[in-house]
Design brief:
With 185 residues, the protein is α/β, with parallel strands linked by helices. The protein contains 7 helices and 6 strands, in the order βαβααβαβαββαα. β1, α1 and β2 form a beta-alpha-beta unit.
C-alpha cells in the first residue's frame, strides 16, 4: 500500500483549507486506498527559510521530520488556499526548504477558496513551482470553491456523493502516477 502525505498548508486563524485536508485523509483511509498522513504546516511552525535544508548547518527537528516524511511518501497531496490570487507563504517556505525530496514525486494539487473559482490562480502557480523542483503535478487538480459552505470542521463534505465522485477521479489519477513512478525506481 502506498504512503500519501497530505500537506495542509494554511497557518491562518480560522483556516478553511484544513477541512479539505481532513476530508482527503478520511476518504483515503475509509476506502483503504493508501496510508495517509496529514503534514500540518501550522504544527510544524517552520521559521522563514534562510537556506535549503541540505545546506542548513543546524536544521530544526521539525525540518528534518518534514524532510523524512516527504521522502517516505510515495505521493503528496497539497491542499492550498488561495490568498490574493496566490498561495500562502507557509507553503512556499515548505516547498523551498526541500529539493531532492521532491524529485519525481507525484503531486496532487487541491486549491481552496471562499469564492466561486476554487483557487485556480494558486493552482496554476503551484503547478509551475512543483515542476521547477522536479516534482510531477498530476493532470487532474481538485479545486474547491466556496469551501466554507461545502465542508464542516471535521472534514465532512456537505454534498458527499458529488465530492466523493470528484475525489475518486482525482485519487485514481494520483495513484496511477504513483504506481507508474514507483515502477521506475
Amino acid at each position: 500500500m502506498f504512503n500519501i502525505a497530505i500537506i495542509s498548508s494554511s497557518v491562518r486563524i480560522g483556516r478553511q483549507s484544513h477541512k479539505v485536508a481532513l476530508y482527503f485523509h478520511n476518504y483515503i483511509s475509509e476506502n483503504k486506498l493508501a496510508n495517509a498522513e496529514i503534514l500540518d504546516l501550522k504544527e510544524f511552525n517552520f521559521p522563514v527559510m534562510e537556506e535549503r535544508l541540505s545546506l542548513t548547518p543546524n536544521p530544526t527537528d521539525a525540518q528534518k521530520l518534514f524532510s523524512e516524511k516527504i521522502m517516505k511518501a510515495d505521493a503528496v497531496i497539497v491542499v492550498s488556499p488561495e490568498y490574493n490570487s496566490g498561495y500562502p507563504a507557509s507553503l512556499k517556505n515548505a516547498i523551498d526548504l526541500l529539493y531532492n525530496e521532491w524529485y519525481h514525486k507525484p503531486i496532487g494539487l487541491v486549491s481552496v477558496s471562499s469564492g466561486a473559482f476554487g483557487g485556480v490562480n494558486a493552482l496554476a502557480l503551484l503547478q509551475n513551482i512543483f515542476l521547477k523542483v522536479r516534482a510531477v503535478p498530476i493532470a487532474v487538480p481538485f479545486p474547491v470553491p466556496l469551501v466554507q459552505n461545502n465542508f464542516d470542521d471535521a472534514g465532512n463534505a456537505v454534498n458527499k456523493e458529488a465530492t466523493d465522485k470528484r475525489a475518486a477521479t482525482f485519487l485514481k489519477e494520483l495513484l496511477w502516477y504513483t504506481e507508474a513512478f514507483n515502477k521506475m525506481k
